[in-house]
Design a protein that fits this description.
Number of strands: 6
Number of helices: 6
Radius of gyration: 33 Å
Shape: elongated
CATH topology of one domain: Rossmann fold
CATH class of one domain: Alpha Beta
Helix content: 40-55%
Order of helices and strands: EHEHEHHEHEEH
Largest sheet: 6 strands, mixed
Strand order of the largest sheet: 3-2-1-4-5-6
C-alpha cells in the first residue's frame, strides 16, 4: 500500500453477501480515511447504496456468475481508470475455491494489491497468476469429477449388460437357476439296533 497517499481507494466485489459488512468494518478500521466502492449485481444496488460504509456503488447485470466477460471490456477499462489501491474478493467459504472468476475480476481492476477475504475474517494476497492457477484448478477439478461420474455410469451399464446376458444364456440353454430352498441333510436312522453275529 502507498503510505503517502491520504485516502486509500478500495474496490470490494460483493460476491459473498454474508461477510460484506464485517469486511467493510475491518477495512474502515485498517484504513480510516479510505474510499470504498462496491461492485454488486444490479438487483442489490439500492441495498448496498444505503450502507453508510459504502461511498460508491458500481453494478453489473444480474447473471449467474460475476466475471470479466459479464462485466464487459468498457467497464473493466473504467475500473482500471479509477486506480484502486486495493481490490477485495469476498468468499462464503474458507478456502475460496469456486471464486476464481471473482479473483480474476479483482485482478482485472489493476489494483495495487488484491486480497481474498473469507468468513473467518482473514485474507490472502492474490495476483493474476494465483487467480489463473485457481481458475485452472477449479476447471480441471470439475473435469475430473465429470470423468469419474461418466466412468462410474459406464461401469454400471457394463455390469448390467453382463447380468442381462447371463440371464439370457441361462434361458436359452435351459439351465435352471439354483434353488432357493434351504438345504436339508438326510435324516439319520438312530433307532436301528445293530447286532453283530
Amino acid at each position: 500500500m502507498n503510505e503517502q497517499k491520504s485516502q486509500v481507494n478500495i474496490l470490494v466485489i460483493r460476491s459473498a453477501t454474508r461477510i460484506l459488512n464485517p469486511t467493510l468494518l475491518s477495512l474502515r478500521e485498517e484504513f480510516p480515511d479510505c474510499r470504498i466502492t462496491v461492485l454488486a449485481p444490479q438487483s442489490a444496488r439500492e441495498a448496498v447504496a444505503q450502507d453508510p460504509l459504502v461511498d460508491e456503488v458500481l453494478t453489473l447485470p444480474d447473471q449467474r456468475r460475476m466475471s470479466i466477460s459479464s462485466y464487459g471490456k468498457e467497464n473493466i477499462a473504467r475500473l482500471q481508470a479509477k486506480k484502486f489501491d486495493l481490490a477485495i474478493s469476498l468468499y462464503n467459504i474458507d478456502h475460496g475455491l469456486g471464486y476464481a472468476n471473482i479473483d480474476r475480476l479483482a485482478c482485472a481492476s489493476k489494483a495495487t494489491e488484491v486480497r481474498g477475504y473469507n468468513p473467518k475474517g482473514t485474507f490472502v494476497k492474490l495476483d493474476s497468476a494465483k487467480a489463473l492457477r485457481k481458475s485452472i484448478m477449479e476447471k480441471t477439478t470439475f473435469f475430473w469429477l465429470g470423468i469419474n461420474y461418466a466412468a462410474t455410469a459406464l461401469l454400471c451399464f457394463i455390469i448390467t449388460l453382463a447380468l442381462i446376458g447371463e440371464w439370457g444364456v441361462r434361458k436359452l440353454l435351459g439351465k435352471k437357476a439354483a434353488s432357493h430352498k434351504p438345504y436339508q441333510a438326510p435324516a439319520r436312522e438312530s433307532n436301528k439296533v445293530v447286532t453283530h453275529a
